[in-house]
Amino acid sequence: MAAARRPRVTSTDVARASGFSRQLVGFVLNNTPGQSIPETTRAKVLRAAEELGYVPHGPAQALRRGRGRTVLLAIPDLPQGGTMGDMLEVLADELATEGFTLVTYLLGAEHRSPKDVAAALAPVAVVGMVPFTESEIATFTASGAALVLPQPGTRFGSNLEEVMQLLGEMQVDYLSGRGHRRIAFAVPGDIRSASLSAGRYEGARRAAERRGLPPVKRYVVPSEGAADVVRVWRSGRHPITAVACHGDEVAFAVLAAARAAGLRVPEDLAVMGADELSIARYAEPPLTTISIDGRSSGVILARTLVDLLADRTPPPFDLHDGITLVPRASA
Question: Quick one: which of 96, 186, 226, 309 is 20 to 30 A from 15 by CA?
Fold first, then answer.
């Protein structure tokens, strides 16, 4: 009987054994230039690697010898929350263990065009939170990028638009499942959130259509003036009974306005948020929302990048990965 194959020792195992971060261990194992690492630290990492039987990963090492090591991540000019911060931290760390350096580029907020940035950095891969245009893809490829994500027609990459639509669908599906038929969609007044709100609203609209509900209307809820919007929802012959909010911040404003109007939540008006801020559980009543695991997304994206650059097929990716509905008392 053949012996069971021993799992490959990874740089993460070396980091755990040596007590140093995965990023630092990656610098030592890959002999990354420009890093000021004490010789005692370097020796401890290499000793742990030897004791564990660490062997550099062949495809990744070949990539590093033949191509650049910079991965360019283009981020839309959007309000940055904890989810995005978690994703960026893990993505940078995971890529560093494979010898790559992550550089972020804020679209629309930089003085330099994507073409100039790509020409200066010559990234081996370019990743967008939303799909690039054909012209942008051609520019990145001409600058030497071997990979541009998202790839049209595939599940490879981080397509923010699809994730946003999924969140809106989940909200309406949940509220409809709780018996609500007249649902409003609340968006913030911040113009930078417009693209995200558009995607979430589109998902909500489609879910309502699929379930045979009355059309979901979109309402702007300013941070000062939510009470006026709540009054509109509750007026007329067919008042709104549930609100799907773009994010938890909007939901907090709606909850406060509902209390001020003497409404019971969720009996008179059910309220649902998204993105699960840490204080959502302490709202009055506790806020039903959707949690997005940014750290999980960072790991998946990093593995997808490394696998595709090494001409391997990444593991299957499901948009639902890391996205969890959190039911509480508000809806």
Answer: 309
Per-residue pLDDT, 3: 39
Q: What are phi and psi of 76, to 5 degrees?
A: -60, 155
Q: pLDDT at position 255, please? A: 96
Q: Which residues contact 147 (CB under 8 A, 6 or more apart)?
A: 124, 125, 126, 305, 308, 309
* pLDDT value, residue 258: 95
| CB within 8 Å of 205: residues ≥ 6 apart | 168, 185, 215, 216
- The 3-class SS string of the chain reads CCCCCCCCCCHHHHHHHHCCCHHHHHHHHCCCCCCCCCHHHHHHHHHHHHHHCCCCCHHHHHHHHHCCCEEEEEEECCCCCHHHHHHHHHHHHHHHHCCCEEEEEEECCCCCCHHHHHHHHCCCEEEECCCCCHHHHHHHHHCCCCEEECCCCCCCCCCHHHHHHHHHHHHHHHHHHCCCCCEEEEEECCHHHHHHHHHHHHHHHHHHHHCCCCCCEEEEECCCCHHHHHHHHHCCCCCCCEEEECCHHHHHHHHHHHHHCCCCCCCCCEEECCCCCCCHHHCCCCCEEEEECHHHHHHHHHHHHHHHHCCCCCCCCCCCCCEEEECCCCC
pLDDT mean by block of 10 residues, the chain; 331 residues: 54 88 83 80 90 65 57 76 82 90 76 71 84 81 84 60 89 97 92 76 96 96 86 91 95 95 96 93 96 87 89 78 92 96
Going along the chain from its start, the domains and CATH numbers come out as 11-56 (1.10.260.40), 66-158+294-319 (3.40.50.2300), 161-292 (3.40.50.2300)
| Cβ-Cβ contacts under 8 Å for 40 (sequence gap 6 or more) | none
